Amino acid sequence: MKPQEALALVKRYVSNRNLIKHMIAAQSCMRFLARHFGEDEEAWALAGLLHDIDYERTESNPSQHGLVSAEILKDYGLDQEILHAVVAHTGRIERTSRMAKALYCVDPLTGLVVASALMHPTGRVQSLDCEFVMRRFKEKRFAQGANREQIRECRELGLSLDEFIELCLEGMREVASELGL
Question: Residues in domain HD (predicted)?
Fold first, then answer.
C-alpha cells in the first residue's frame, strides 16, 4: 500500500481532523524511529498512519479498538507485522516486534507533543526541544490523556526517554505544516 492510498483509506474511515492529524504525527514519528533503527521506514510509517483507523467505529466499544482496525486492513495486503503493531498498540496483545513496541509508545507521545506545542509561546512544534517537552511530561495534570507509563516503555526499544522524545520531535517537525503546528 502506498502512503497516498493509506491516507485516502484513513480519510474514508475517519472524519475527525484532529484524529487524522494525530495519525499523521504517528506516521512521521514511526518513520524517524525506523530510520534510527535501520528498519523499513515505509512499513513503520504505514503502521503509524493506520493505527487508529477504527477509532470512530469503536469509540462506544473501546474493547474492540485495534481489532476492528485489523479487520478493516486485512484485505489490503499489508505485512502481518503492521497488523500486529496496530492491534498491539492498544495493549490488548503482547508487543512482540520492535515496530509494535515503538507504536505503543508513539501513540501517547504525539498528544503530549501537540499539547506542548500549543502551550509554547510560539505555538509551533519547530520551537520545541526535548527539555520543554520533558518539563510538560513531569506535570501530572498537563495533557492527562498522554499516558506517561506507556511513553516510558520506550526503554523496551533501548532508548532513553530523552532520545525517544527527540526522535519523535524530529519526525513531527517534518509534518508541522500538516499538523497546523
Answer: 20-101
Dist CA 174 CA 160 (whole Å): 22
CA distances from 132 to 29, 96, 121 (A): 18, 32, 11
Amino acid at 120: H
Q: What is the mean pLDDT of the chain?
A: 96
Per-residue pLDDT, 27: 98
160: which residues sit within 8 A by CB, 6+ positions away?
154
**Rounded distance between C-alpha atoms, residue 151 and residue 123, angstroms:** 23
Radius of gyration for the chain, computed over Cα atoms and rounded to the nearest angstrom: 15
Residue of 151, 115, 149, 145 whose CA lies nearest to 133: 115
- pTM score, two decimals? 0.96
Domains of the chain (ranges; CATH) run: 3-176 (1.10.3210.10)
In this structure, the number of other CB atoms found within 10 A of the CB of residue 161 comes to: 18
Please tell me the predicted confidence (pLDDT) of residue 54.
98
Q: How far apart are CA 178 and CA 124, in angstroms?
A: 12
